[in-house]
Amino acid sequence: MFAPPFKRNLGGLDVTGSSVASQPPVGCCEQHSLDVDACVSSTRAKLHEMDTPLHCSIVGNCLSTAELRKLMAKHIAVKDLSDLEIHHTAVVMAGQIGEVSKALHKALDQRHAGAVRTFSTAKDETALTQRWRDAWAQGEIPGAYWAVLTHKKTTADLRQMVFGEVHMLSHLMAASNRHELQRFVMLEKENADLRERLDREQQRRLQLVQERDQIAEQMRQQLVRLENSVAQYRTQLSDRCAPPEANQLVVLQTQRRERAEQLAHAAQEQLLLLQEQLAHLQKHGQYLAEELAAAEAELHHLSEVQSGVVAAVHPSCENSATLQAQRVLYVGGRPSSTPSIRDYVCRRGGEFLHHDGGLEDRKGLLDSLLPRASLVVFPVDCVDHDSVTKLKRLSERHQVPFVPLRSASLACFAATLKRELANDVKTAAFLPQLCLRHS
């Protein structure tokens, strides 16, 4: 822009429209060499004192459309006016001295108070130009534009430069926003389509909800009718088929059934207990039969020996060879039966070793006796637990078989020894797998 869009009025107004002193006579200018550009106002310029092109630029750039509409609503009816019409009215009224011009000026000062304070510190045109460049670089153009145009040190050249830059900036913004405007139009169209689809979906959803509510109401009514029918049927059935004594009979039969179930459960538990006792008694009877047979064979053998019959031909001595050179260690027992057991072993060619389990003999003797034995036996009813535990550890360590006896009687010893020898104890190795440390 080589020519400004406004004129300089030397008849009483400068380029800002502010009043200056009257034009002096020709001779006065020749005497004092007055420079009109240096004649600037001593106060900030008012909005109504500026030319119309500046009014349009200031109102359009320094106030938003929403702020302008809100401000003009206090003075005119803006309900049916467009933003362009409000802008045009504000520009026209800004150049007139009145309430609208004052309100616009006050609103601009309040809106850009920070920029006005920043530019107020400038003392000359150079400082104002530097302030404007800084604000332009930071993008704070609206406030700086208003502060420069109203500053008391602003010259015509600076005002023309600022106006031109802002004017060109509006053109650049319009060109750069052309594609955005096209995209905005497309988005508005797409938005309208989406709104239409949304309305259709909402109507369809409303219809589905209404149909669902109708079906639910029908189902509820049908359920109420069915419940009433069932209640009536039950009432009729109870009136027809249930005499007064029927309920009592049902209660009585129910009590009998529960009592019978309790008795059956108790009988079942007692049956299991009796079966366990029977198995235990059968096993105990088998042991007693074996002991009785062994005792009878021993008595028969003794009677034959006393009568002079050779013992070797008797069947009870068939296992005597198995005790040849065998050492039997007997731990615990009763003093009354131990001699008979010793004689029984010795008569069959074996060697008898005895330890009383710690009553009189030291328990440490087991460490020396057990490695010498070929078989270890002990009655479970006549030996203490410590001796049994130690005996099992030593048997496991020295790989010596051991056999627990049911009792300390000779018959039990003979029957058990016969049974174990028949099962080949030495080869079967009746040894529990025990941990030497934890038993």
Outline the fold blueprint.
Blueprint: H1 26-32, H2 52-62, H3 65-72, H4 83-94, H5 99-111, H6 113-119, H7 125-138, H8 141-150, H9 156-176, H10 178-241, H11 244-307, E1 327-331, H12 338-347, E2 351-355, H13 366-369, E3 375-379, H14 385-398, E4 402-405, H15 410-422, H16 425-428
Parallel strand pairs: 1-2, 1-3, 3-4
Helix pairs in contact: 2-4, 3-4, 6-8, 7-8, 8-9, 11-15
Keywords:
63% helix; 4-stranded parallel sheet; mainly alpha; disordered C terminus; 439 residues; 4% strand; 4 domains
Helix content: 55-70%
| Tally of individual domains | 4
Class computed from helices, strands and strand pairing? mainly alpha
* Parts with pLDDT < 50 across at least 5 consecutive residues: 6-40, 310-321, 425-439
Question: Given the structure, what is the number of helices?
Answer: 16
What is the H/E string? Answer: HHHHHHHHHHHEHEHEHEHH
Rg from C-alpha positions?
64 Å
User: Strand-residue fraction?
Assistant: under 5%
Q: Main beta sheet: strand number and arrangement?
A: 4 strands, parallel
Number of strands: 4
**N-end to C-end Cα span:** 113 Å
Outline type = elongated
Q: Strands across the major sheet, in which order?
A: 2-1-3-4
Average pLDDT, all residues: 76
